[in-house]
C-alpha cells in the first residue's frame, strides 16, 4: 500500500531505488503483440472511425462496432486461450488511450465492456466453466455491461435494492439499474443484486451474469448526457428474470467485494484515456498556437498562452508516467495496485479536465465553437469543446473524486491507526491508552529519527537523476522524500487533534491525498524520464518535461500544505448549515 507507506514517511512505490531507477522491461513477446495490435488499431481509427458522425448521430455506427469486433478489440485483455488478444495491462491501456482520443464514446464502450463488464469479474472470480462459456463470446462478439448503480444508490452501493430471490436452482431478479454504460446494446450483463437470507442461503449482495435476452429484462430509456453522446447508456428493469445459479459469480454475499475489486483495476482504463486526451490536447495546442498570430506574433509566444502549453505538455508526460507505472504493477499480478489505481484515476481525471479547459482557452472563440460549426464555415473541425464535455464525467463515475479522496485517505489513516492503535481510540479507557502509549512510544522512538531526518535531507541523494547535459531531477526526488515525511507528521498531528472525528474532516483528508497524488506523479515522471534517457529515447526532452512537471507540482503541493491548516473549512461548515436551514439565503449573502 504505497499511499499508506507514503503517509508513514516511507517512499511511494514508484520511487526508484538507487541501483535500479528503471521499471522492469516488459517481455519482448508482449511488446511485439502489443505494438502489432496498436498499429492495426491506429489504422482502423484513421480510416474507419468517423468521430464527427458519432457525435452528430449520438451513436456509434453498426459498421464501426462490427469492425472493432473483427479487430479483436472486444477481447484485448482476454487470454488468447479464450480467443482474446491477451494484451498486457500496459498495452490494453495504450489501446484505450488511442481509441478514446479519436472517439471517447468508443473508448468508453471498450473500457466498460472489458474493464468492468463481464470479462473482468469472471477473470478474477469466475469458475472455469463460466470462463469457458462466456469469455470466448466476450472476446469476439458479445458486448457486456456492469450494473451496480440504482436510482437511490450511487456512491454508497451497500444499500442497493435489486433483489435475487432463490427459486429452486435459479434466482429471480427484480429491480431497476440506472446509467448502465453499454446496457442498451449489451448481450451480457453483470448485475449486482441482494439475495435475502433464508434456509440454506447466506444471502447478501451477490454478482450474476445475466443474458440480456432473458425474459423480463427491459431497457426502459436510453440516457443522454452533457458529453459522450455516443454512449449506449440506459435504464434497465428486471422483472422476475430467471437466472441459473450457475451464473452466480462467487458465493452469495460476495457481490460488493467483487464489484469493488473489479472497479479497483478497472479504474486504470480511465486515466489511460485521460492521458490520451492530454496528448491530443497538446497536439492541437501546438498546431494552433504556432499558426495563430495576434499582436504580430504566434500566440504561443505570448507568455500567458505559453504557460498553458507548458502545463499541458508537462502534465501529459506525468500522466503517461503514472499510468505506465501503475499498469506495469498490475501486470506483475503480485502487486496490490488498489491505491495506485485510485490515485491515477483521481489525478488523471482532475488534470485532464484542467488540460482540456486550457486547450479551449488557447483556441479562444474556436475552442467554444463546435466542430460541426467550424466545419460548416470552412475551418478545421477541432472538437475542443466536445473534449471538455466528454471528459467531465471522469470526475464522477467509477468512484467520484470525493469518494477517491475518502478511499485513499482511509488507507492512510488506517496505517497510522495501526501504529498508534488504542492511543487515539476515543472508546478506550485511560488505562488502555496508557498501555498503548508505552507501546507506541517505543515504536516512535525508533521511527521518528527516520521521519525527521531521512536521506532526503542529505545533499546529493539520487545522483543518477543528474546526468551530464540534462536538467537535475534529484532535488525533486529529495523533495518527495521530505514531503512524504511531512505528510506523515501532519497526519499524526491531525489524528491527535481530531481523534474519532478525523473521518469527518474531508477538507483536510482531501488535501493530504492530493499532495500524495502530486508526489506519486513526480516520482513517476522522474522515473520515466530516466527510463527514456537510458533507452536513448529523447532523454533531454524527457528530463526537461519531468523537471517542468515537478516544479509545477511542487508549487501545487506547497500550496496544499499551506491550506492543511489555513483554510475556511470551519466557516464553510457554518455556512452550509445556514444554507440548509434556510437562514442563509442567496440574496442576503450576495
Ligand atoms: C455517463 C454515466 C455512466 C455511468 N456508467 C455506469 C455503469 O456502467 N455502471 C454503473 O453501475 N454505474 C454507472 N454510472 C453511475 C456512476 O458510477 C455514479 O453516477 C457515481 O457512482 C456517483 O453516484 P451518484 O451519481 O448517485 O451520486 P451520489 O452518490 O448521489 O453523489 C452526489 C455527490 O455527492 C458526493 N458524495 C457522495 N457521498 C459522499 C461522501 N461520503 N463524502 C463526500 N462526498 C460524497 C459525490 O462525490 C457527488 O459529488 C454512470 C453514470 C454516468 C453519469
From TrEMBL:
Catalytic activity: a 2,3-saturated acyl-CoA + A = a 2,3-dehydroacyl-CoA + AH2
Xref: Pfam families: Acyl-CoA_dh_1, Acyl-CoA_dh_M, Acyl-CoA_dh_N
The entry's keywords: FAD, Flavoprotein, Oxidoreductase
Renumbered residue ranges of the record's region Disordered: 1-31
Ranges where the Acyl-CoA dehydrogenase/oxidase N-terminal domain occurs: 35-140
Acyl-CoA oxidase/dehydrogenase middle domain ranges (all copies): 145-241
Family label: Belongs to the acyl-CoA dehydrogenase family.
Protein name per its UniProtKB record: Acyl-CoA dehydrogenase
Protein species of origin: Streptomyces violaceusniger
Amino acid at each position: 500500500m504505497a499511499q499508506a507507506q507514503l503517509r508513514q514517511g516511507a517512499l511511494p512505490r514508484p520511487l526508484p531505488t538507487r541501483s535500479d531507477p528503471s521499471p522492469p522491461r516488459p517481455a519482448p513477446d508482449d511488446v511485439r503483440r502489443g505494438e502489432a495490435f496498436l498499429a492495426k488499431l491506429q489504422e482502423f481509427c484513421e480510416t474507419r472511425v468517423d468521430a464527427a458522425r458519432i457525435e452528430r448521430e449520438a451513436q456509434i455506427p453498426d459498421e464501426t462496432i462490427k469492425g472493432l469486433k473483427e479487430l479483436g478489440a472486444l477481447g484485448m485483455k482476454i487470454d488468447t486461450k479464450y480467443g482474446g488478444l491477451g494484451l498486457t495491462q500496459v498495452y490494453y491501456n495504450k489501446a484505450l488511450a488511442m481509441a478514446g482520443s479519436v472517439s471517447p464514446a468508443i473508448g468508453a464502450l471498450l473500457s466498460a465492456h472489458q474493464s468492468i463488464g463481464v470479462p473482468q469479474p469472471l477473470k478474477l472470480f469466475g469458475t472455469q466453466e463460466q470462463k469457458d462459456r462466456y469469455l470466448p463470446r466476450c472476446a469476439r462478439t458479445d458486448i457486456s455491461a456492469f450494473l451496480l448503480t440504482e436510482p437511490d444508490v450511487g456512491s454508497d452501493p451497500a444499500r442497493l435494492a435489486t433483489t435475487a430471490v432463490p427459486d429452486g436452482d435459479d434466482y429471480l431478479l427484480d429491480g431497476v439499474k440506472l446509467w448502465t454504460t453499454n446496457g442498451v446494446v449489451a448481450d451480457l450483463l453483470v448485475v449486482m443484486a441482494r439475495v435475502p437470507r433464508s434456509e440454506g442461503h447466506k444471502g447478501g449482495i451477490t454478482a450474476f451474469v445475466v443474458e440480456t435476452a432473458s425474459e423480463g429484462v427491459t431497457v426502459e430509456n436510453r440516457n443522454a448526457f452533457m458529453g459522450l453522446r455516443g454512449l449506449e447508456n440506459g435504464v434497465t428493469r428486471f422483472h422476475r428474470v430467471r437466472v441459473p445459479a450457475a451464473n452466480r459469480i462467487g458465493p452469495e454475499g460476495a457481490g460488493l467485494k467483487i464489484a469493488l475489486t473489479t472497479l479497483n483495476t478497472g479504474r486504470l482504463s480511465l486515466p489511460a484515456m485521460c492521458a490520451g486526451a492530454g496528448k491530443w490536447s497538446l497536439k492541437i495546442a501546438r498546431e494552433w498556437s504556432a499558426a495563430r498570430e495576434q499582436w504580430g506574433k504566434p500566440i504561443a509566444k505570448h507568455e500567458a498562452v505559453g504557460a498553458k502549453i507548458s502545463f499541458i505538455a508537462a502534465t501529459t508526460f506525468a500522466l503517461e508516467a503514472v499510468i505506465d507505472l501503475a499498469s506495469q504493477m498490475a501486470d506483475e499480478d503480485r502487486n496490490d495496485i488498489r491505491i495506485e489505481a485510485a490515485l491515477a484515476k483521481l489525478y488523471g481525471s482532475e488534470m485532464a479536465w484542467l488540460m482540456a479547459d486550457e486547450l479551449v482557452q488557447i483556441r479562444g472563440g474556436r475552442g467554444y465553437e463546435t466542430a460541426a460549426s467550424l466545419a460548416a464555415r470552412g475551418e478545421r473541425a477541432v472538437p475542443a469543446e466536445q473534449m471538455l464535455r466528454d471528459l467531465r464525467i471522469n470526475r464522477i463515475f467509477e468512484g467520484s473524486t470525493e469518494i477517491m479522496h475518502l478511499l485513499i485517505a482511509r488507507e492512510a489513516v488506517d496505517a497510522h491507526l495501526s501504529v498508534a492503535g488504542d492511543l487515539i481510540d476515543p472508546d478506550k479507557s485511560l488505562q488502555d491508552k496508557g498501555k498503548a502509549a508505552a507501546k507506541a512510544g517505543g515504536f516512535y522512538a525508533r521511527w521518528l529519527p527516520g521521519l525527521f531526518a531521512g536521506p532526503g535531507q542529505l545533499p546529493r541523494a539520487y545522483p543518477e537523476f543528474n546526468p551530464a547535459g540534462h536538467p537535475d531531477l534529484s532535488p525533486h526526488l529529495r523533495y518527495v522524500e521530505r514531503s512524504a515525511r511531512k505528510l506523515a507528521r501532519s497526519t499524526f498531528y491531525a489524528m491527535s487533534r481530531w481523534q474519532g472525528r478525523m473521518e469527518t474532516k474531508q477538507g483536510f483528508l482531501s488535501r493530504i491525498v492530493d499532495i500524495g497524488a502530486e508526489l506519486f506523479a513526480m516520482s513517476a515522471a522522474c522515473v520515466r524520464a530516466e527510463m527514456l534517457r537510458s533507452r536513448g529515447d529523447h532523454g533531454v526532452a524527457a528530463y526537461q518535461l519531468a523537471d517542468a512537471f515537478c516544479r509545477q507540482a511542487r508549487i501545487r503541493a506547497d500550496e496544499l500544505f499551506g491550506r492543511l491548516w489555513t483554510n475556511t473549512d470551519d466557516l464553510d461548515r457554518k455556512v452550509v448549515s445556514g444554507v440548509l436551514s434556510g437562514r442563509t439565503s442567496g440574496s442576503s449573502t450576495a
